[in-house]
Amino acid sequence: MVKVYVAIIAVLVFVGCGPDNNPNVKSSMYQSVNPQEATLLQSGKDKGSCGRCGMDLVMFYKTSHAAEHDGKHFQYCSIHCLEDHLGEGVTLKNPKVVDVDSLKFINVGDAHYVVGSKKRGTMTRVSKYAFSDESMAKKFQAMFGGEVMNFTKALEVAKEDFKH
Ligand SMILES: [Zn+2]
């Protein structure tokens, strides 16, 4: 009889720990946001994908960059893919990056990048996260390490990934 009770309790415990009731959980990656938090600047059916590598822009939103070329909006999963586009010799207008804190796009000139922190990067081993507020960048750096730098320097580091 004791065995039967144990079996019943085991079943109840198992049911109690069943799958999450919310099937719409977002990816556990640091870069990911909920779709309603993301700003997608491209148009057309591929607006949710990186203009270079095709990766999902909501999944890699916190490292997303954007720019204009030939009157068209391009959005990238990362500064890596922006640099990949620049590598073709094009001039990209109005480059922007997502501010990790507000999740809004800001001009790259106003961004403080934390480069090489412990947080995983997108398309690179040396992660780069941008903040509009320098104190937020310093706070992030205090927690996860890395170096605070401007866009030009962060782009130089991104270029390193293309040298093999
Ligand atoms: Zn990409």
Automatic annotation (TrEMBL):
InterPro entries: N2O_reductase_NosL
SUPFAM superfamilies listed in its UniProt record: NosL/MerB-like
Pfam families in the cross-refs: NosL
Coiled-coil annotated residue ranges, if any: none
PANTHER family per the UniProt record, alphabetical: HTH-TYPE TRANSCRIPTIONAL REPRESSOR YCNK
Name the UniProt record assigns to this protein: NosL family protein
Gene source species: Sulfurimonas gotlandica (strain DSM 19862 / JCM 16533 / GD1)
